[in-house]
Amino acid sequence: MPIEVLMPALSPTMTEGNLAKWHKKVGDPVKAGDVIAEIETDKATMEVEAVDEGVVGEILVPEGAQGVKVNQPIARLLEEGEDASALKSAPAAKPAPAAPPPQAAPAPAPKPAAPAPQATPASAPQPQPKPAPAAASPAPSANGHDRTPASPLARRMAAQAGLDIARIAGSGPHGRVVKADVETALKGGAPAARAPAPRPGAAPSPVMAPSLGMAQVAALAGNAPYTPVPNGNMRRTIARRLTEVQQSVPVFYLTMDCEIDALLKARADVNAQVESKVSVNDFVIKAVALALKKVPAVNASWSEEAVLRWNSVDVSVAVALEDGLITPIIRNADQKGLAQISAEMKDLATRARANKLKLEEFQGGTFSISNLGMFGVSEFTAVINPPQSCILAVAAGEQRAVVKNGQLAVATVMSCTISCDHRVVDGATAAQFMGAFRKYVEAPVTMLL
């Protein structure tokens, strides 16, 4: 049977993606590791590598297709000894939705049928199923087949060798068992334990509030004229994840004012000596990283079994895009100098705006920074990016009246607000972190010690 190439899950939050480009065509040979396509996800455009070997027999999803569901077949590979006739016996794949045609003109505001619209059944939240008890291995489906994700070739090899496919650790996308995994098992490689099923009594996923359709929103706004801007994958993902945070995470906020005149002078001195200029944000990243080393309880995440305190300091920095934002990561920021942080941040931001970041460059991180100072914002709060427990909102530096030694003076003051998951970080701990951060910002020479 031909091998189905499935739409991979390239991030934990991905449920669908757009097929931007094919690198292989029908008749081309494919080896494991070959780049076969480019997929546009909710956060970036990434290359997809083949996990099986064969010849491209059929492309099921054309370039430009949007909204292709994860694990939907996008192509079929012919194995050694197979020809195109084998495709006729393969089950028909569900066609991918075509790219939406461009709108010639904005749609007029629809007239509501009733003055008091209610959420439609399609938008109402569905009841959450109760988690099943943990089992030693994945349960079989109704037709008797194991639900373990595996390529057809790997499943056939395991069956011929008498191996339990559920006991083999998958190295493919989304934990999929591929040919190489079966070969490793045949050579005596120890299978990795799979993730256990949800524990009985575990808290269900938060229920999302019902969303209103365009007609309902227009009615509530008095049917004012509008221009619809379709929600892309990134915007929908941002909406879903941040709504979950606000509904399920107990968040508190602390604001602290930092005088940055010494930092501005240090920045000017540094930039006078180097060709690549250092920004205020680079100083902020370094100060955050050192403060996290000093107060490691903030560099942590919540889980039901334990609070995970991270051994590395990987700082995510929000970068604005046309249709959302992304958070590329400065890894081991506490171990890097200002020049290196500045160079990495410039490179990451440039490639982020071009949708060219690799998954590992924006997936992860232990703490986030959102800096709106360049927009003149005086003070704001930011929404936590799970599974992180904290995010620091950095506002603009402004000249303000301050009291020094009992006398009025003028200083450049930057307000910074930390949002904290109270399950992980207590108020006193957050205050200690903010105090350490302010000391580094107000005495930047200490970042060099």
Polypeptide structure, described:
By secondary structure, this protein is of the alpha+beta class. It has three domains: 3-89, OB fold (Dihydrolipoamide Acetyltransferase, E2P) (Beta Barrel); 152-186, Dihydrolipoamide Transferase (Irregular), CATH 4.10.320.10; 234-448, Chloramphenicol Acetyltransferase, CATH 3.30.559.10. The chain has helices at 152-161, 179-186, 214-220, 233-248, 261-271, 280-294, 338-353, 359-362, 427-442, and strands at 3-6, 16-22, 29-30, 35-40, 45-49, 54-59, 68-69, 73-78, 251-259, 300-302, 307-309, 315-317, 319-321, 324-326, 329-330, 367-371, 390-404, 407-421. The strands form five sheets. A six-stranded mixed beta sheet has the order 9-18-17-16-12-15. A four-stranded antiparallel beta sheet has the order 1-8-6-3, with no helix packed on it. Helix 1 runs parallel beside helix 2, helix 6 crosses helix 7 and helix 6 (280-294) packs across helix 9. The N and C termini lie far apart (64 Å).
